[in-house]
Structures are given as C-alpha cells and as structure tokens.
Amino acid sequence: MRCVVFGATGYIGGRLVPALLEAGHEVRAVARTPGKLDETPWRDRVEVVQGDVTDEDSVTRALAGQQVAYYLVHSLHQRDFVDIDRASARTVADAAAHAGLDRVVYLGGITPDGELSPHLASRKEVGEILLGSGVPTAVLNAAVIIGSGSASFEMLRYLTERLPAMVTPRWVHNRIQPIAVRDVLHYLVQAAELPPEVSRAFDIGGPDVLTYLEMMRRYAVVAGLPRRVVVPVPVLTPWLSAQWVNLVTPVPRSIAVPLIESLVHEVVCRDHDIAEHIPDPPEIHLERAIELALARVRDDDVPTRWSDASAPSDPLPTDPDWSGGSIYTDVRELHTSADPDALWRVIESIGGEHGWYSFPLAWSVRGWLDRLAGGAGLRRGRRDRRRLHTGEALDWWRVERIDRPHLLRLRAEMRVPGRAWLELSASPGADGGATYRQRAVFEPHGLAGHLYWKSIAPFHNVIFGGMARNITGTAEHQEVSA
C-alpha cells in the first residue's frame, strides 16, 4: 500500500519506515527538515517530502495519492502543546477525509481511569479527533515502550544503574504493562491492512503486568547489577519526581513530567480486542526487551532515539540570507601535522564519553546548571561513539549540518539568552597536514544576551582555545599511535 508517515524523523517513525518497506509497502516520509533523513539507510527507498502538520497546504500535498497515513507527531516540548496538537490533528483529519484516504493510524497512550494529566488528555483528544475524521482510523494505545533509545527505557536504565539505593514515590507500586518497541512496530505495520469497517481505539501491551519497582529490579538482574534498595515515601509528588529524573537521567524535565504523570495511575490494557484483527507478535517479555535494548546500546546500533525529534532550526546568523542583528563570534584556526582524515575522526567523535577537549570541570558545571534550569545538559550523550548523523542530539547540542569529512555544525539547545552555534572543520594544509578551524557564533536576545556573552568572554581562551589545541593534539597523537 502507499503509506505516508508524519513524524518520520522521530523515535517511532524512524523505525516504522524500514518496517513498512520490509512489509512491501511504498513509503512517503514527511519531515519539517528533510535533510535530517539524508543519512538514514533507507533514504533511497522512500519519497521524502517537506511538510509540517501545522501547515494545511503541506499536509494536503503530503497526503495526495496516498492510501494510509501514520500520525506519529506531538508537540510535547512546547508550552502550548495541547492547542498545537489539537489544531494539528484537525488539520490532518480534515485533509485525510478530503483526500479520500483508506486509513489513518495513530499511536497514543493507554488512558487510565481518573483525572488525566494534560499530556494524557491531549493524546486521548488527538485520537478522538482522528477517529471523528470519517476516515477509518486505528488508534493504538501503548503504555511504557521498552527499546534502545526510548525515553521510557533510558529513564528506567539510568535510575536503576546510577542509584543503588533510592527513595521513591508511591507510584513505583502502580501496575504497568510495558511493551517492546518491536511489538509496537508489529501492530503499526499490520494496522495498515485492517478492513475499512474497523475504526476504533485498541490498547496494546506486552505479556508482563508489573510495578515500576519490579521493572527496576528486573533491569538490575538483566544488567548484572546488585539488588537495588528502594524506600518508597508518600511525599514525593510527580513534579518532584520529574526534577529528580531530570538531574539523574538524560531525560529532560519536559519529557519526565508527562512520563511520570502517566505512571501515577495504573496503565494496563483494558482488553485484548486487537487480537481479533491482528495476530499477536512473538511474545517479548520485559527481560528480553531489556536484553535487546542493551545489546544495541553496547554495539552502537541505536537506530533512533527519543532526542532525535527537535524544533526546526533558524538559519545561522552569518548565512547570506540573514539580515540585521548583533552577532558575536569566536574563531580559532590551527595547523596540525595530522592528516585531514585523522583530524576529522577526532572532530566527529566529539562529545559523549569523549568529552569536549577542554576544561572538563567547567563543562560539567555548566551542564548541571543547564539541567537545573530545565535544559538538556550534557546527559543526552550520543547514539554512536564514532559517527554522527544530521539532526541527532549531541549532549546539549543538535547536529544541524555535517559535510563529511570537512564540516560539523552544532546548534545549541542549552538554556541561554540567545541562539548559539559551534562549527568545527578540517581541510588540507597548504604545506601538508591539515588546518583546523573552529567558530563559535552567538546571537544575543536582549540585554541579558549581551551580558551573558561578555561575562563568559574572559574564559574563551581557556575553553575554546583549549578545545582547538586539544583536538589537534589528539589527532596528532592518534595518527602516531596508529
């Protein structure tokens, strides 16, 4: 069938596209920034189009000539996400009806009894809007998704690994029905071929029903960790729990809050009606799902990650189409005896466990301050220790552009009064070796932005100068060692 995927650059969308291809479907991938898909292994097998679910014209163009639309988009990082998601769902629902689609498929969350959090209420509302489109719609509701790179898995992983003893809130005793990401993809792919009379919501879950506390203990067993000591206390609210998750794990507060709010209630499938229409996948128990996820992490084989999705970027202020504004820059250029390829390998491996090649304490302190302010901090790391991809998160940066083996451009996602970029480049030297060029660009917002840049300017020689010297020095050392 001809399938269009909204949210192809996201965690689930980036895995669904190759699964649809493997099932024999034709795929049109929709992305706000199509360049983010250039390095995916399936890029040449799909049609990539630019589109935004908030823009009616681009949605209409994306749906033209298609049969099935997958809606895998939500605006969780934005303050007014409820209004944005409502309007976006209505835009897609109306356009799908006008285009005469055969089916819409949406991945939502299991809705517990009782008062819903804004996040869960919004996910439920989006499903209802799509079901009301007049187009046969399958709303697949899942609880905690376990897979390498999922926000739920990374929260579970880091809480368990980093805290041998922990004080936890009461919600760790609530029952949950997790599901392996492979099983989620199984249901999503099969949903494309549901008969037209099937238009409803289904709960989907794995074979295990257990508490979050049991999940942490089972993770510890699979990971070979000592038994974790857990002391539940009633005073830790979901909000306070989210602050703790924000500090201890890579998952930021903006995602931790809705994740934890969904765990305050029991999230267990009410029925298994989906089995009447889609055969059950091979049962992947929690332990096996954890094993599969950890194996991918160890092998640097994480195809997508929760942090892959990001807001569209504005042009670099020094690009030709930029006009006006005050711009600060810090430019460093060094010649190195290392050849350009050796230099590039160091550039592309920056961040994560390799660090930032200058004043580690200053970077760590800045990262903690950013986490306290609700920013990304340095905890997101990187998916692969050696290779970067356009659009992926790298600590508190976003890979905005990569021209291998010459240029790496990073866009800052830390909390600063302005916008910032960092460019690292390698080129052949005039007399052999290579030339390393490093450029930091900052566009201040208001007086606070100007004061921010001026306050850190005295440290630039230590931080940026040290980075340039250490990157070139590392390249020379690695080349000699090789």
Search tags:
6-stranded antiparallel β-sheet, about 475 residues, about 35% helix, 7-stranded parallel β-sheet, Rossmann fold, alpha/beta, Alpha-D-Glucose-1,6-Bisphosphate, Chain A, domain 4
What's this, in brief?
The protein has 482 residues and is an alpha/beta fold.
Q: How are the SSEs ordered, and which strands pair?
A:
Blueprint: E1 2-6, H1 13-22, E2 26-31, E3 47-50, H2 56-63, E4 68-71, H3 81-99, E5 103-109, H4 118-131, E6 137-142, E7 145-146, H5 151-162, E8 165-168, E9 175-176, E10 179-180, H6 181-191, E11 200-203, E12 210-211, H7 212-222, E13 229-232, H8 238-248, H9 253-263, H10 286-298, E14 328-336, H11 340-348, H12 360-372, E15 393-394, E16 397-403, E17 407-412, E18 418-428, E19 434-444, H13 446-456, H14 460-481
Parallel strand pairs: 1-2, 1-4, 2-3, 4-5, 5-6, 6-11, 7-10, 8-13
Antiparallel strand pairs: 9-12, 14-19, 15-16, 16-17, 17-18, 18-19
Helix pairs in contact: 1-6, 2-3, 3-4, 5-7, 7-10, 8-9, 11-14
